[in-house]
Amino acid sequence: MKTVLLKFSGPLQAWGTDSHFEIRHTDSHPSKSGVIGMIAAGLGYRRDETDKLSRLNRLDFAVRIDQPGEILRDYHTAKKYKANGELERTYVTNRYYLQDAVFIVALGSSDEDLIRDVKAAVSSPYFSLFLGRRSLPPTADLFLGIVDTDALSALKNVPWQASPWYKKKHPGILQIFADNTMLNDGSVRIRNDEAISFSQRCGRKFNPRREARTVIEIEYSGETEEHDAFDAIGEI
Predict the structure, then answer these.
(1) What does each C-alpha distance from 110 to 28, 150, 157, 168 come to in angstroms?
(2) pTM to 2 decimals?
(3) Residue ranges of the alpha helices (H) in the chain?
(4) All residues at 6 or more sequence positions from 52 whose CB lies less than 8 Å from its CB, including other chains
(5) Segments of the chain scoring below 50 in pLDDT
(6) Which residues, 6+ apart, have CB-to-CB distance to 97 below 8 Å?
(7) First to last CA, the chain
(8) Fewer beta carbons within 10 angstroms: which end of the chain, N or C?
């Protein structure tokens, strides 16, 4: 079993599994369908290639909330016009985002070819990657590496990735959300979160997915390391 570790820490993220046109919500943590969609984009899958999603859906999925962030509401208006060019109506829309959030995502599998594909998708993506919604790019330290263990164990061993100011104010008690098959003893909820189709022509389709939750504690020494903005991308 191998696990790919990803760090989601862009300025804004949005992971909606229950949204409509006028109101675009975000969940409190990344959705499996959103991450699978990102990997599919990195591999160059087209939106109508729904048959390829089943392979990605077999990945074990878990996410750790290192820094929950805060909700940001963005007010929008959109205009709809008739065929003759006349204004039909104006929509008022509200879009919600997570700001200053940090998540560690673990994608595990015993299929080493699949793990290599996931690494390729995030290291050298075919299409641009976004954190749940267009215009929300990931940071340069997206790919943290591959470890020889299952997704849940991997998340228990990764150092706390929150910002230093956040660590000083909060205890290292972190939530993990994972596929129910990985956390049979955790509390379970259902999300509309198994990606079946991302097709714009035939419509997006998702099946219910059972997700479990657990809590772990990570020690923090209180020491603050100096940060070099270029460390994540290597030498120039």
Answers:
(1) 29, 9, 19, 38
(2) 0.86
(3) 32-42, 53-57, 112-123, 151-157, 164-169
(4) 40, 45
(5) 226-230, 232-236
(6) 12, 13, 14, 26, 71, 72, 74, 133, 136
(7) 35
(8) C
